[in-house]
Amino acid sequence: MELFPPLPLSEWRDTKETLHRFEQLIGKIRLTSSSRRNHWWNVPFHITGRGITTRPMGQADGNPVFTIDFDFVDHQLIVSALDGTAVSFPLLGQSVASFRRHTLETLADLGIHAEIPHPEPFDLPDSSRPFAMDTEHATYDPEHANRYWQVLSQVALVLEEFAARFSGKCSAVHHFWHTFDLAYTRFSGRHVEQPPQVDSVTREAYSREVTSFGFWFGDDSFAEPAFYAYAAPEPAGLELEPLTPQAARWVAQNGGHLALLRYDDVRALDDPRRALLDFYESAYRAAASRADWDIEAFTSPDGITDQQLVAQHR
User: Fold this and answer.
1) How far apart are CA 8 and CA 32, in angstroms?
2) Structural domain that includes position 38
3) How would you label 146-168 residue by residue, b for 16+ Cβ within 10 Å and e otherwise?
4) Of 33, 172, 208, 237, which residue is least crowded by CB atoms under 10 Å?
5) Domain end residue (candidates: 116, 133, 150)
């Protein structure tokens, strides 16, 4: 299978918009049915061999232990309980409203009571419209949904390879449903005092100094898929640091700067995987050196921290 197959936003925008809202609805169930973790790490989806999963949840909220999975091979939503029972329904042919109804009915069949806090999309153009009222978003192309999962899986493995180089506190490689991006974050360990006016989501996400890396599929602000990296808080002069490969660049965004590399530029290179690893590494070193991180202390070559093996590796 081709590494980083084509996925122009213009060809699957309608499916993406529908799927994004499906995932937000399930993500909000995950939000209330899981124990809170620092930096919202309980909230994102994780990638499976057939799609994405909430991971097991429940129990602490009085529900049975259950998992919700998107299957992008057979194109179903599957709700599974710990006793082995499972109920599913097709993703094809659903509007957001009917998807919500089927989800709640499926959960009820398994004795699960699900809460959907703020039952409308988060930070999307129709954020004032409840999921239950959305019959507009009803496009689901199985080929595009499957391609979306393939790309997620391929990029996730490159991010896992990149993550192996760092031995400090870091996040999993995970898929955030609110922004529809794949992300991995490294921490320096330094506390960050956020201004009182900053919203609670941001305060938790950026309570520590970070460099973050990821991939998104494109949206209204940047209408094509791209890889990205940034630092928070951003050290002075970050945008002056060089990036690799040559097509990568710093772009101004929200008063700061984002390292950006277009998906199609990576696809055009002789070794896309190596180019992407080089991009993430150059962005990390740019941010970490400007912010005075102890880069050497955090280094974990090929995922190794055993000093005898590290010496042999060198």
Assistant:
1) 34
2) 9-133
3) ebbbbbbbbbbebbebbbebbee
4) 237
5) 133
Q: Are 91 and 77 in contact (CB under 8 A)?
A: yes
Query: Looking at the domain assignment, is residue 194 inside a domain?
Result: yes
User: Do 149 and 290 reside in the same domain of the chain?
Assistant: yes
Instruction: Tell me, yes or no, whether 169 and 292 share the same domain.
Output: yes
Domain end marker among 115, 133, 151:
133
